Amino acid sequence: MTSADGGPFAVTGNQIVKTAGALDFETKATYNLDVTCTDDLLQTTDTYVVKVQNVGPKITSLPTASTLVEWQTAEKLLTTLTLAEDAADCV
C-alpha cells in the first residue's frame, strides 16, 4: 500500500488497519490510500478513502449541579472543566 497522504495506516494480510497515531480532522479530514494487489502475473491498484469524522471535545469532569447561597454578589468559581481534547474555548 502506498499513500501520498501519509497517515498511520498499513495493510496486514488482507486488511487495511489504522496503526498507532492520532487522526485530527482539523489537520487532515481525508486520507487517500493506494492499494495494490498482485497474483504474480498481473496487478491492480485502487484507491481506498478514509474520512476522519470531526468530533467535538468531550467534557470529562462536569458535575451535575452547584449550590450557591442566596444573595451571592461576588464572583465565585463553580467548577473547572477538564476536556479530553484541546479546546480553545468553552461557551
Account of the protein in words:
By secondary structure, this protein is mainly beta. Helix content is 0%, strand content 29%. The chain is built from no helices and four strands. The protein has strands spanning 9-12, 15-18, 30-38, 43-51. The strands form two sheets. It has a two-stranded antiparallel sheet. It has a two-stranded antiparallel sheet with strand order 3-4. A hairpin with a 2-residue loop joins β1 and β2.
What's the gist of this structure?
By secondary structure, this protein is an all-beta fold. The strands form two sheets. It has a two-stranded antiparallel sheet with strand order 1-2.
Q: Tell me, rounded to a whole number, the average pLDDT.
A: 80
Q: Which class of secondary structure composition applies to the elements?
A: mainly beta
Order of helices and strands: EEEE
What gap, in angstroms, lies between the N and C termini? Answer: 43 Å
Tally of DSSP β-strands: 4
- Beta-sheet strand percentage? 25-35%
Principal-axis shape equals: rod-shaped
**Integer-rounded radius of gyration:** 23 Å
Alpha plus pi helix count:
0
Q: Characterize the main sheet.
A: 2 strands, antiparallel
Indicate the low-confidence ranges by residue numbers. Answer: none
Widest β-sheet, arrangement of strands: 1-2
Q: What fraction, in percent, of the residue positions are helical? A: under 10%
Question: Keyphrases for this structure?
Answer:
single chain, 91 residues, mainly beta, two-stranded antiparallel ribbon, 4 strands, rod-shaped
